Amino acid sequence: QFSYTPATALSDGSHTVVINASDNDGNAAVEKSVTFKVDTIPPTLNISAPTNELVTNTASITVRGNTNDASTSPVTVKITLNGTDQGAITVGGDGTFTKTLTLKEGSNTIVVTATDAAGKASTVSRSVTLDTSKPVVKSAVITPNPVDAGASMVITVVVE
Fold first, then answer.
1. Is the dihedral of CA 64, 68, 127, 82 positive or negative?
2. Which of 49, 125, 127, 129 could be cross-linked to 64 through a Cys-Cys bond (beta carbons 3.0 to 4.6 Å apart)?
3. What's the pLDDT tens digit per position in 71-111?
4. Nearest Cα residue to 54 out of 93, 112, 107
5. How far apart are the first and last CA of the chain?
6. Sheet holding 60-68, edge to edge
7. How far apart are CA 32 and CA 75, in angstroms?
8. HEC states along 64-110?
9. What is the pLDDT of residues 117-126, one digit of tens each?
10. In terms of C-beta density within 10 A (0-12 exposed, 13-18 middle, 19 or more buried), how is residue 77 classed?
């Protein structure tokens, strides 16, 4: 058993280690090589929908985005809605993905995480508000009342 530490850090990408061993009697083992990848960079992650701070009156919303990792594909995507995992997400060969979610009334937090094969991750959060309540007109006042024909008037409306 032995260990080796390179004199300088390895760059991202593929590397091969070749191992030669022999004993004191000159008997040589068959050469072995191992190829591995170094990945220090998390995958890219772009969310095209929904926009952050979106206010909508529709409970069904589709999360759309794309992801990529130059050195350790494939990338897996996880989406949580208010802390609950939303199940399997299929990532296309071009890195695109979509997932339809059902919002709860009020504030919702969507967290999308892309993780590459090396375990590096990128995360994007979106805050979306579902507002299905209807506005209520509490009052409407015209000043002055009655209005002189051709004169200006002010209409004051209180809406909740």
1. positive
2. 49
3. 777 899 999 999 999 999 999 999 999 999 999 999 999 99
4. 107
5. 75
6. 44-49, 60-68, 96-102
7. 30
8. EEEEECCCCCCCEEEEEECCEECCCCCCCCCCEEEEEEECCEEEEEE
9. 889 999 999 9
10. buried
**Residue 128: exposure state from Cβ atoms within 10 A (0-12, 13-18, ≥19):** buried
Instruction: Point out which residues pair with 131 in neighbouring strands.
Output: none
> Tokens 């979509």 identify what position?
98
pTM of the model: 0.74
Rg (CA), the chain: 30
Q: Which residues contact 48 (CB under 8 A, 6 or more apart)?
A: 64, 65, 66
Tokens of 46: 């772009």
